Every structure is written in structure tokens, then in C-alpha cells.
Amino acid sequence: MAKQVITKSIEESLWQACDKLRGSVESSEYKHVVLGLIFLKFASDKFEERREELIEEGQEKYVEMKDFYNMKNVFFLNETSRWNYIKTNAKQDDLALKIDTALHQIEKNNPALKGALPDNYFSRLGLDKTKLASLIDQISEINTIADKQNDIVGRVYEYFLAKFAIKEGKGKGEFYTPKSIVNLIAELIEPYQGIIYDPACGSGGMFVQSVKFIENHYGNKKEVSVYGQEYTNTTYKLAKMNLAIRGISANLGEKAADTFGADQHPDLKADFIMANPPFNQKDWRGKDQLTDDPRWQGYDVPPKSNANYGWILNMVSKLSDNGVAGFILANGALSGGGEEYKIRKKLIENNLVEAIIILPRNMFYTTDISVTLWVLNKNKTEKTVSKGTETRNYRNRENEILFMDLRQKGEPFEKKYIQFNNTQIEDITNSFHTWQTDKESFENIPEYCYSATKEEVIKKDYSLVPSKYIEFVNRDENIDFDTKMKGLQTELKDLLVQEETSKVDLQNVFKSLGYDL
User: Fold this and answer.
1) Which of 80, 176, 305, 386 is a Cys-bridge partner for 165, taking CB atoms 3.0 to 4.6 Å apart?
2) Residue 353 to residue 361: CA distance in whole angstroms
3) Is 0.70 surpassed by the pTM of this model?
4) How far apart are alpha carbons 141 and 10 in whole angstroms?
């Protein structure tokens, strides 16, 4: 029988090669090196492609004029910023300085990249020059524009973001939301056209998947505008590079900034909000700060001990009259008292909560807990809406909330994580959209979904914990518990006897060796 040959993808092969060159550099630092170089290679490949076009068109005299590149949405690169120059000088002692200079010049020549590229990062990090040269050789193997249908550089960039998030693990991988969760949110809220906003955008994955959703459903990505904000400067740069690689124009604010303390989009009204804000953020506002913030208007001030409801009200304040939000929060936000209870009660009374969806554990690289996907909708009334190529009639669900439990869904990947596959995402979103549009066809399913009326939620004291509403099958009803308990007791006694016997045997061994126990 012939031996099966397993072919590695370009992403996997490149990752393994680059990771071997990392040496003593922390993943949190190394990702900016690798992703910065991938961006540089991509920008250079696009530049060279456009340069050849100009030459073929007989316009050689314009090949060094940046306007002729910008008009085709191509970044202009001067000679010392091009990949061939970097590769030719890869054995020089000042390679790191040359890379930093190249990135600085690209940003300077292309205003759209303002604040996007690593600033003096390579020189400051002090990466071993031999390993840096080898890294240049590895990335040189990627022809980032060879297959326009399959978006090679986008795939590589996305793969690397995920792998770095896994490498960094708990407490450090917040810049990346797992792809299958982002896909699920996009399929649920369907951002076909209008303004998309993410108040904690990380590396920009929500925007990338939104545009992919539009393309996959034959929409027009020119009909959406992207707005976001990110607190960490290095992550802000990752997002701008990630979006630039995809050709996505976005307003991420003038700088990296705290969404609560320095809102970059105070007057924004978004049609779609997608977010994965920090879980259970402590001390997010000072003792007397933000108490009169307009974002809390009509609600109680969120407690400073936990930002969960601060994030919720920030998003509510940004929604347009027909706006929909899909976001992730820790399960603790589903119940509890104090100011959170008062805010949750008002959200329910205002008919904003559309769906509460419990996700499986181990979906995130930063925590192993089960978390919740919330869907808020400013307009749950009966309406007709165009969704890409189809028109959909929505039923009035003002006085209902859909609860879903997905903890039995998902499949393993990377040994210890869980993700949804495409079929599962399709099944979940079909259930949600059927609930929205077809009261006759939708049915409650034990251990999966339940449509609760507002009256039922009020009787549960405004709790949004799905297990209070979804029916669970008692699988233990046919078990003879007395017999089962007697069997377990016998097994326990046998184990204790074995342990005592082993202890005596061990003592005898030590005594035979002259030890007095």
C-alpha cells in the first residue's frame, strides 16, 4: 500500500519555518516582526505589479510618481523600501535599520497608513541578524499576489494572527477573536450594508470577516463603512496593517485610545456592531469619572468594579434606529444585582435583547470559560428588509427573547481548543433566522433553544441565564440509584484496601534496606 503524503499548506509551512527562527524573542514581540515583514512583502509585490503595468502601457516616465500608484489603491514605495532592496541587503549588519527605514518611508509616502507600521521596532528589538536574514529568505518565498482568487497574503496573515494568539495564551492573546466565533456573529447579524463598528477591534478580525460575509453572499463591500477603536498601540498597528492588506478602508480613530476615556467616534450611529471586549474589566473608570457620560443616558451608571455593562451601554448608544449588535461577554453579565440588574432590567423592558447564546468552553485562547454571545436589536418589530439578493420578512418579536445553548456544538482543533465548523454555523444561524421570520416553523428544542416571552423573563426576575428557560432532558430517570450507589461504595472500599496494602508493602521494602520508618 502506497504511503499517504500529507501536503502542508503554505501558511503552515511558513509558520513552522518562521517559528524556528524566533529564538529567545517572545511571541508577543516576534509577531510584530513577522507580520510587519509580510506586510512589507505584500506592499512591494503590489507596487512591482503596478510598475510593470505602467511600463507595458508605455508610461515609463510615471513609474516613480506616487499618484499613479495611489489611483489604483497601491502603496507607493521608494527604492529603499522595496523588497528586492531589503533582500539584497539581507546580509548587511544594518539590516534591522534598513527595515525600519523602509517601513517609515512607506508610512510617510502613504497617508492612509498613518500610525499603521512598526516604528523603529526592528532596531530596538535586537533580533539576531542571521535569523533576521533567514526570515527575509523565508518570506521571500511568498508570492503574495499570485492567486488573486484565494487571497494568499490574507490567508497567511490570518493564520499567523491565530497561531500567535495561541502561542501567547492566557492574558496576552486578546488581540485576536477566534475566526469561527467572528463568522458566527457575522452570519447572525448579516452586515450587508451601512456602518459597521467595533469598540474594541483588536487586530481587525471582525471587519475582515464582515467583508468576507458580504463577498460570500454576493453583496458589495463598497456599501459598508468601517469604524473601530483599539486601546493598545501595537495592536492598533496590527489592525491597520491587516485591513490595508485586504484593501479595507477603515476609520480607527486618530490614535490608539481607551474607548471609555477617549471615545474616537462620539457621534457615531452604527447599523451593525460586532465586538469582543475585555471580559470583567476592573477599575475601568475612576471613582468619579464618567458618571455623567451621555452613553449611559436613560440607564444607571455601570459599576466601576466591572466594565461589562459599560461596554453594553457604549454599544447601545452607538446603534442606529434599526441597528443590530452581536458581541461576546463573560457569563456573569447574565445575572447578578446592583446597577447591573437595573441596567439589564431596562434593556429587557426596552425590547433591546434579541438573543442570548451560550458558547462552548475552550473556544478562546485567553480563557477556558464558557462565554455568552449577545444579540441586541433596536427594531424587533414586523418589517421587510433587503438582505443581499433576497428580501426577508421579519415577524414581530418585541416581547420575546431567543435563548440558545451551543455547549454541545463545535469540534476540536489545535488539540485543546473548540471551534464551529461551517455546517454547524449554518445550522445555528438557520435556527436564529427561522425564529426571526417564521413563527409557525420555529419550535423549541430541548437542550438547544427556547423562545421566551418577556413575561417569562420577568417571572425569572430578569435573569438571562439560558438554562432557566431551555428544557433539559433528564437522562438519569431510568437509573437505579440505590444499586448504583452500592456499586460505587464497593469500588471505593476496594481502592482503599489496595492503597493500604501498597503502603504496607512499601514500608517493608524500606525496612529491608535498613531504614527505620
Assistant:
1) 176
2) 23
3) yes
4) 10
